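Deliverable D4.2, example record:
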Amino acid sequence: MSSICPKCGGKIKATYLKQNCPHCGVNLLYYKLDEQLEKDALQAQKEVDAVNKFVGLIKDSAVKTPLHIIRLILFFTPLASMCLPMYVAGHKKVSLIGFIMSIINHGFDFNALLLDKGYFFAVLSMVCIILLSLAVIISSLFSAGKKGFARNMVFSIINTASLITLGALVFAGGGQLKIGFAVTLIIYAVEILLHYFCDSEKKKSRKVLCLALSIIVVIISASPLIIPVNSAVEPYPIPSSDEIKAVTFNLAGPWGTPFDGTSDKERVVRFKKYMKAVSPDLLGTQELNSFWLDTLKKSMKEYDSYAVKRGGDDSEKTSEMNGVFWKKDKFTLIDKKTFWLSQTPDKESRFKYKDEEGKDAEAGCNRVCTYVILDSAQYGKILFMNTHLDNTSEEACDFGAKLIVDEIAKVKEKYKGINVILTGDFNSTSDSKAYQTITAVLKDTTDSIEERGTYQEWGYKTPDEKPIDFIFTSFSSSEYTVLDYIEEGYISDHYGVGVLVK
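Output generated by the structure prediction step:
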């Protein structure tokens, strides 16, 4: 392929290798080199000037004065204020940290998010704060440019209006506005004021606009104090009668987090209040630990209790028990016992077995059944048992149920005519082998009409459709109740179950 001489336009063969044009003799390599270099230099200078102008614009917009720097810092502070409790919605505190922790611990379930409108809008609010704050930050980097003040105000007004609107929707959905909401709005109010003070023109009309908007936002930020909190509905207690009120409740004692209001210290107070309203005669608890037991003993003085640590747990806090409580004025203790749901029930141990591949396997943790034999003037002797079957091994679950049935037979042999009440978290539904083993000797008190899931995982997952918490008895039963009062916050990641027996 031939080329062309840049000076005379003569054609040059591709095989021509000399430096000078064969037609006019000009040096092909250096023809107009100085002009090209000068042109390139001018272009380079234009690009450098453009970069310098851009950097200068950023500096003038973001760090020109101490007020600019303060405004820039404030743009990032909503990330900190959202770590405070923003709302109480979905019956728990909602904050950025709490929501992140919920995803880490429970995963993300969009269907569960939609079950409570207040909680949905609370989460949506935090997402909007993050996205719109990013838009405000980007806009502010060009605020020294043409129409920079107008852009800043538009984004800040959208950001603030969105938070106020979503806060109103949270409240309308049954939620409450908390300190994080107020602090975030105050930050937005200060940002709006700083838009004026960082503006080079400082027009009077802009001053009035910024001042008025800031005052309005500050007034609205006081809404968590001036808007009345939705009044809590008192829990509906199991109806009073001459029958025995029995309750089972997995307390999730060692678990929960203060970030969403499910810490053990908060929940034990709610549980005490709830049990005072329900006033069970017999109470079986699972995932009870020493802190809960000591607290309940001090505050529920009308009850006697018995609980034994199952062993094999990581710490004192996570050392679980299946505690039983009974009213002192109605029952007298005759005997008590705890046995392990394993091949060695009389000592601290864990069920072991061979899996389908013939490999050694074991239950997820030590499991126990705790019981007391009580005497009642009205009902005679009662065997009150409480257990928590394994959640990782169906074999362990089935084996535990068989051991419990065997123990019931032994007690009945010793105490003729004794009635039985068995409470517990069975980690299985009514279609399991363990359930069938138990119902071969005792009656399930679950009302088929009222039947619904009892494990709700603090509301972070779609609730189970069927219960895994049961009360079985040899008595006749009535008034089956799912104890689902959570208006003041979650008591546990399970609902309790109550029933009357006679």
